[in-house]
Amino acid sequence: MVYKHIIAAIDLSEDSAYLVNKAAKLAQSLGAKLSLVHIDVDYADLYTGLIDINLAEMHERAENDAQTRLHELANNAGYPVAHTLVGSGDLSEEICSTIKDLNVDLVICGHHQDFWSKILSSTRQLISRTPVDLLIVPLK
Amino acid sequence: MVYKHIIAAIDLSEDSAYLVNKAAKLAQSLGAKLSLVHIDVDYADLYTGLIDINLAEMHERAENDAQTRLHELANNAGYPVAHTLVGSGDLSEEICSTIKDLNVDLVICGHHQDFWSKILSSTRQLISRTPVDLLIVPLK
């Protein structure tokens, strides 16, 4: 078996459904498990000055929202999704720890041409850090 | 069908057999065609001063050598290889034109940690230029 557990890194942009669909087709062809992960920005990193008391609440709300949207994507994938995970913090770090926790052997991520530099930098980090194969899907 | 024609970009290092093997397994699982490509350095770019008369001969010899080694890899792949191609020049440019010529829909390439910066730069070029999916396999 080429890959046993595929994880798709989802940024919840409008192209996410396309990426999930591609990941689902690949997982189905290979008989692999499929999971979805979304890594949110770390809100604590955005506020270096006084921290608002509502930060925790805001973070929780964003996390719930992300979880809801991930579940929607999972339900429309046309293939059973084993785990939907929402984390926050450094993308490559979080994905590497997920890889270890869930015995993932393939990471799928998209890249947009429009906010290129940001994605390139996440992708570059992933390329240099991920211990497993990485499938990069170009998005419009 | 997720992918119809997979091409593996081979640098003819000692890890090439591992990469070919992985590409062959994936192609087999997906019922896709498999091709191998090696992009040689462009010798003309290395000599900016006086150009030796034997440059053409040297280039031809290197190309024949690369073709022989690609054929060996193809024969040991355990899966039929449709095309073995040797080119020279800019990696991402050559691969993009191969993608178009052969209707490739997935490119597989390895990356070494040891001569990282060089590969990162080829990979970065590939990420930003390839119109199709790119599978990056970490090598030791």
UniProtKB/TrEMBL annotation, chains A, B:
Q: Which GO terms describe its cellular component?
A: cytoplasm
Pfam families with a match to the protein in the record = Usp
Question: Primary place of residence?
Answer: cytoplasm
Cellular localization per UniProt? Cytoplasm
For this UniProt record, give its keywords in alphabetical order, as a comma-separated list. Answer: Cytoplasm
Q: Which residues form the UspA domain?
A: 3-138
Tell me the Gene3D superfamilies matching this sequence. HUPs (3.40.50.620)
What CDD domains is this protein classified in? USP-A-like
Could you say which protein family the record assigns here?
Answer: Belongs to the universal stress protein A family.
Complex formation? Homodimer.
Q: What is this protein called?
A: Universal stress protein
Q: Which organism is it from?
A: Photobacterium iliopiscarium
